Amino acid sequence: MSARDPRDGRTLLVLPALNEADSVGEVLAEIARVLPDIDRLVVDDGSTDLTAAVARAAGAEVLVLPFNLGVGGAMRAGFRYALEHGYDRVVQIDADGQHDPGAVPELLDGLAEADIVIGARFAGKGDYEAKGPRRWAMTVLAGILGRVSRTRLTDTTSGFKAMGPRAVALFARHYPAEYLGDTVEALVIAARAGLRITQVPVEMRQRSGGRPSQHPFRAAIHLVRAFAALCIALIRPRLTVPERPAAKNGAGS
Amino acid sequence: MSFATYLLGIVAGLVALASVIELLRRRRLRERHAVWWFVAALLALVIGVFPATLTWASQLLGIEVPTNFVFFISIVILFFVNLQHAGELTDLEDRTRTLAEEVALLRVKLDRLDAGSDERDRDA
């Protein structure tokens, strides 16, 4: 299917958010400024602060999960919402402001040729740097996943992605909630279900709060768990893309 | 130790390991629940293939009968599996409770909406 124009068909921006009350309002306001025609859904993943209230005040639709399910669980809720409400495409974007909403149209353009477009760091744009073991882990993971999906990937743990109709239908049913499931295993599931994956270089901004761990010991644990997740994902039976149900409410815009 | 006993140890270890992997593969077992069983099966296999490692480890710790060391390790692993399950059970009970409350709150909201729309029907 051709979807060159981002406004051709319906797109939903999904922001999984856990205790992001400080940043989510500003992020939503920026999205509204840059992309006035795209609907926004915040999935509040069991926050204990005012994330949901702030998001509602900023004009976004909000799904409040009764307890924390992790990014994978929050995103599956988002995909199910998209499917139920007749959205063709979903763009996952962080609520902490590290992703530039200005790159969303580029990701959506990529969906003309692919089912999943990853907004990749380390692809020659921006100055995001990871060092040492963490960097090696990312490189090796990207290499293996690139082979599984038969494309060149440099960053497979990015949380900035656009999903086309087939990916939305697949992920609404099978989106893993394990550690790294939302990145590594999700890509394996998609590639083995026959979806095409590609990447677009994007610039990353400084996170508003928190930094990724650079501690060597934790990086090593991360590496081991990432490879365990990858091996398990690779030996699991293939999944197929489920048929898309007819949208219940207002598919036409 | 006879050859048959040696073989039995290896086969038992292999079956244990294969069961864990197959359950993982079929998504019947989540990764974090599989860790202890995976470690146990792997240990069983190593000891099955190289029984000398057991004797060596027992001597190192001053355990006179190597079998006692096996029992000790088994109990430790089972202890941690049970502890993990108890923790998860607590977590699950907490979540069911939250879900039940959530459903009750939603039902009240729905009843009020229904009552409201009935009134409008009567007025019309």
Automatic annotation (TrEMBL), chain A:
CDD domains: DPM_DPG-synthase_like (cd04179)
Positions in coiled-coil regions: none
One Pfam family it belongs to: Glycos_transf_2
InterPro entries tied to this protein: Glyco_trans_2-like, Glycosyltransferase_2, Nucleotide-diphossugar_trans
Domain Glycosyltransferase 2-like: 14-162
Signal peptide: none
Family designation: Belongs to the glycosyltransferase 2 family.
Name used for this protein in its record: Glycosyltransferase family 2 protein
Native species: Agromyces soli
From TrEMBL, chain B:
InterPro entries: DUF2304
Transmembrane segments: 6-24, 36-57, 69-87
Domain of life assignment: Bacteria
A Pfam match: DUF2304
Keywords: Membrane, Transmembrane, Transmembrane helix
Name under which the protein is recorded: DUF2304 domain-containing protein
Organism (species): Agromyces soli
Lineage per the UniProt record: Bacteria, Bacillati, Actinomycetota, Actinomycetes, Micrococcales
